[in-house]
Each structure stands twice: as C-alpha cells, then as structure tokens.
Design a protein that fits this description.
The protein is 39% helix and 22% strand. It has 422 residues and is an alpha+beta fold.
Length: 422
C-alpha cells in the first residue's frame, strides 16, 4: 500500500509514475478524501477537548448543583456529536483504505518504462541454448510417452489444467524440492519454513492478492483461501510485528503447493503444465531495510540463478518494464529458461522487490536501534524456483533421440542414482 501522506504531497509525480503502468491514475478522489479526513479528525479532536474541559469543570470548587446539571447536559450533547464524528472518520478512513488497496505500487526509478512484455530488457544470459540434431519434442509429449506425466487421469480427477506425476516423474518432483531447499539453506543461508496452505483474508490483503485479484483466488470455507504462493503465509509470519533491526535481513525459504484459478488466461498455454491450477514451488522471502533492499534483491536473483546453473539449464535474466511488473512490485526480474521443444524462453522464476508496499498493508516494521522510531521493512521474494516449470525445462533440455531423458548430475543423488528416465 502506498504512503497516503506521500501520495497527497506528491500527487502529480505519483500519477505520472503510476501512468507508466498503463493508463492515467485519477488520484483526485484520494486527495479529496484525505482533506475530508483531516477536517473530520480535527473537528472530532476539538470536540473531545471540549468535553474534557467540561469534565474538568465538574471538579471545580463552588460549582452549584444547577451548574453541574448544565455541564452534564452539555457534555452529553458533545458526546453524541463525538459519536457521529467518529463514525464519519471511520467511514472516510474505510473509503481511503479501499482506494489505497486498489492502487498498484510505484515502479522503481530503475524499472524500464514500457507498455508490455515486448519492452522488457535482457540484463544477462547464462549457458548456450541446446541445438538438437533430431526433432525436438515438447514436455507433454515426452512426459506422456515416458509414462511420468498423466494429464488424462488428472482431468478425470479434477478437470482441465491439472497433472498427475507417476513413477520417476513423482520422484523427480520430490528430488527437485529437496535439492532446491538444501541449496538455499546450506549455501545461501535461508531458514526453511513449512507453512499452512490455507490462510485468512488478512494474509491475502497483506501481500496484495486481495482485493484486486479475488477472481484468481481459490476460496475455501470459513473465509480461508488456498495460497497462490508460499509468499503469502511466509510474509505474514511477521504481520503486525516490530522486528529487531540488528536481525535484518531475515531470509526464509519454503516449499509448498500453489493454487491459482488463472482467471482470464483461457486459451493460453492450455497444453501441458506450463499454466496449471495447482503446482509446487520453492519460494524465497526476505525482510530487509530500505537501505539494503536493492542489494538484497540482486542477491536473491543470484540465488535463484544458482539453481538453474547447477542444473545446467540455459536462461536469461529479464528486467520487467513498468507495463509488465506485478501489481505489488516496484522492481522485478524474471528468469526465463530456454526450452528447445517450445523453441524459445519461458519464465521459470519471478523475483520482486516490493519496497515497503506489502509492509504497510501487513504492518511489518523494524526498530533500527533501541529507542528509535520503528520503520517499515522492505519485503523481497522470488521463486527459487517453480518446480513444475523446472521439470518442463529438464524434459526438453535433456531429451535424447530415443525419447529418454537424462537426469542432471546435481539431481542424481536425490533420484537414488537414476541417470536416465526411460
């Protein structure tokens, strides 16, 4: 959530920066509501002061019974007025909150300005895309032929856009999760978390999924939501807390299933498991200071890159433009892995710096030093990485002419020594 004070004091600048996301933001209603709130709060506080002055009058010596009765009547009238004023303040604050919750984050000054994914900027690339000397197959062809991906069984059980892993496919999923978690914990210093996959509404609001993207969420009973990513429960571990500044950065990594309705994506990536309703992912989350968040963001991207390099998967790092970054992000890098079967690059990890946007929504602060005023943390997260899409990348990059798939060296200890999936 944006800082109301900053928005009101820099209205034109904020409008200009938000407009780079696509379309001009009308902030005048926000300015009007903020002015009305100031007036209502001032009026209410003055009424409270008047009521206190009357209360003090009761205790003055020599006050006659008649005067006491008059003071009591005046105090009662002011009290009734305060009740009305407090309701007015609450109503205005709720309307302000609604407007702020539906405003996206301000793009970072280093975020490229652009209208769509076509304007994203390649930062660097690693590895050489593989050129096959036989017709390349896509992951679903390979997976079905090997008997490790079963889309028809998933359709029978759950419907379209689900997948059942079988045999070596299930083993590969499990191996990747363990491999990624071990790397991020042992090499990169993250603390492993196993979070609930059902969260309350406050968690979804705190990380920016609600109210904007309610149509993409799976709603369970008792006002609980299935998580779209482990970012949601892990970020909310510190909701409404004040962290010790000396502890920052705090770094977590979590493995979880993710559930997304993918509203509005019908007809796009419908084959295979590029875009499914349930998938597993290893997620990295950081809480850090404003002064270090850019460096910590870059470090998190490198942590995700380490996974792809260890697996020998060629990729490129893309800096997303203002028209393509996520709603809550200020700056975002996508890691795109090369897929020979699809003949191009596809996203496998998205790493975002939210600055204090999520922290304001979830009230996550830190105290720089004992006795100092708390400040909002900066939150950062990224896939470390998406497991389903990593399986896609392994199948397509390690496919052989006979239809078998080699297991990357780094995964063989996790696969019980299996070197080839046949």
């Amino acid at each position: 959530m944006l800082d109301l004070k900053y928005v009101v004091e820099h209205l034109d600048e904020v409008a200009d920066r938000l407009s780079t996301r696509g379309g001009r933001a009308d902030l005048e209603p926000l300015k009007d509501l903020a002015a009305r709130r100031r007036l209502a709060v001032t009026t209410r506080d003055q009424a409270r002061a008047d009521q206190k002055a009357l209360s003090d009058g009761f205790r003055q010596p020599g006050v006659t019974p008649e005067r006491r009765e008059g003071l009591r009547a005046e105090s009662k009238a002011i009290g009734e007025r305060i009740t009305v004023l407090e309701a007015d303040v609450s109503d205005i604050e709720a309307r302000l909150q609604d407007v702020l919750l539906n405003l996206p984050n301000l793009p970072h000054p280093t975020t490229p300005v652009g209208a769509s994914a076509d304007d994203n900027v390649e930062v660097r690339a690693w590895g050489t895309p593989r050129t096959l000397d036989f017709p390349a197959k896509e992951h679903w062809e390979l997976g079905e032929a090997l008997g490790i991906l079963d889309f028809e069984a998933a359709r029978k059980i759950s419907g379209a856009r689900f997948v059942v892993y079988r045999g070596a496919g299930a083993r590969l999923e499990r191996a990747l999760a363990s491999f990624m978690l071990d790397m991020h914990v042992a090499r990169h210093g993250y603390t492993e978390i196993l979070p609930p996959v059902l969260v309350n509404r406050d968690c979804m609001v705190g990380t920016g999924q609600l109210p904007k993207f309610v149509e993409e969420a799976y709603i369970a009973t008792d006002d609980l939501y299935l998580i779209p990513t482990a970012e949601v429960p892990v970020t909310n571990l510190h909701r409404e807390e004040i962290l010790d500044g000396s502890r920052l950065p705090v770094k977590y990594v979590a493995y979880s299933p993710c559930f997304r309705r993918e509203a509005g994506s019908h007809g796009k990536d419908v084959k295979g498991m590029t875009r499914v309703h349930q998938f597993q992912k290893v997620e990295m989350v950081k809480f850090t200071t404003p002064e270090t968040s850019c460096d910590e963001h870059e470090a998190l991207v490198r942590d995700a890159e380490d996974v792809l390099q260890a697996l020998g998967l060629p990729y490129r790092v893309m800096s997303l433009c203002t028209g393509d970054i996520g709603f809550s992000a200020s700056k975002c890098y996508d890691l795109e892995v090369h897929l020979p079967g699809q003949g191009g690059y596809r996203e496998i990890s998205s790493c975002s710096n939210f600055e204090d946007y999520q922290a304001r929504r979830a009230s996550i602060r830190y105290r720089p030093a004992p006795g100092e005023k708390p400040r909002f943390v900066h939150t950062i997260n990224g896939s470390g990485v998406a497991i389903g899409r990593t399986i896609i990348a392994i199948l397509e990059n390690y496919q052989q002419a006979d239809g078998s798939v080699l297991v990357p060296d780094a995964l063989r200890p996790y696969m019980g020594g299996i070197e080839v999936i046949r």
